[in-house]
């Protein structure tokens, strides 16, 4: 008869076989998932595109998040390698890997939050819109899976161009009859993270003490930092306003150029994505006053989607805040932002409806 110790070891060996990272009944991982379900309360999170530049760091940071009990890592390449690596971290979340389209549905069933950094990044000389051709189809396929397998999950969409991929996701969900605008959030947190950093530099403050609302969208002039609403209250010269607005709008391009063909922001993006995902999870848990900026379905302007500060709650973006008082420079920026944004939104929506 097999001893208890040998039995336990044989289960661990089974778990080390990559093909068992998505597995059948009685697996060690499934038992661990059950423990996670019945033990420490936590949420189930899937990352789609988990083996990429953003995905890997994001997966590591999510594995460190005490609110996460189950972490599903899906990609079309190397999902099991990343899963094996991250699963050795001695934190609470149980990690499972899913490779390729046939395993997409298993990756999604039962998820509370789905974070999507799947898709190609920019190279120098490209705009985010140049990524539309490839990433639109990727986002459509992934969102079809979400509509089928976890229609109530909160979706954090990172894949560019965000100004178009969020409308694409909305149309996919509408077609499937599962659309809940509160649960679909385009991630613009990196613009806020950059704005806090650059503004703190100018003011000589600790960036953790600074909060800058960034509204509009996530590309060039559609990124509109509201410097007149910075906390703590402060004032800037017009040169400072010009410098800061431009630097925040061009932050992504600054990284693309510095990486010189090796991709775009990954580390700061993973940091921003986890900051945002953590806010969504605290909202889901029922914490009060969780407010962050995100690109969401909105009636704040005449456009169907717009990034503003939103209050995150048990059902997603439960309250969408108005833009607040803006100065003349910001009002002019808003006009420019809306012109570009409406075209990107229509391009995304018509990709599905045509
Ligand atoms: N919202 C934002 O603020 C930001 C968005 N991004 C965007 O995030 C996306 C990912 O960037 P990186 O991680 O640097 O790219 P990457 O190329 O390093 O990783 C992308 C990953 O997506 C995977 N992938 C491709 N097709 C897939 C599919 N059909 N299903 C699942 N996974 C798939 C790839 O295998 C790869 O592992 C890009 O579109 C980029 O522009 C990047 C930075 C900031
Ligand atoms: O610039 C890019 O292509 C990636 C991105 O969205 C950002 O870093 O803000």
Automatic annotation (TrEMBL):
InterPro entries in UniProt: L-lactate/malate_DH, Lactate/malate_DH_C, Lactate/malate_DH_N, Lactate_DH/Glyco_Ohase_4_C, Malate_DH_AS, Malate_DH_type1, NAD(P)-bd_dom_sf
Gene3D superfamilies in the cross-refs: Lactate dehydrogenase/glycoside hydrolase, family 4, C-terminal, NAD(P)-binding Rossmann-like Domain
Every Lactate/malate dehydrogenase N-terminal domain range: 44-186
Enzymatic reactions: (S)-malate + NAD(+) = oxaloacetate + NADH + H(+)
Residues where substrate binds: 122, 128, 160, 194
Residues annotated for NAD(+) binding in this entry: 49-55, 75, 135, 158-160, 269
Keyword vocabulary terms for this entry: NAD, Oxidoreductase, Tricarboxylic acid cycle
Its EC number(s): 1.1.1.37
BP GO terms, sorted: malate metabolic process; tricarboxylic acid cycle
PROSITE patterns referenced in this protein's UniProt entry, alphabetically: MDH
SUPFAM superfamilies recorded: LDH C-terminal domain-like (SSF56327), NAD(P)-binding Rossmann-fold domains (SSF51735)
Catalytic-site annotation from UniProt: 218 (proton acceptor)
Span of domain Lactate/malate dehydrogenase C-terminal: 188-351
Single GO cellular component term: chloroplast
GO MF annotations, alphabetized: L-malate dehydrogenase (NAD+) activity
Membership in a protein family: Belongs to the LDH/MDH superfamily. MDH type 1 family.
NCBIfam families with a match to the protein in the record: MDH_euk_gproteo
Subunit and interaction comment: Homodimer.
Protein name: Malate dehydrogenase
The organism of origin for this protein: Heracleum sosnowskyi
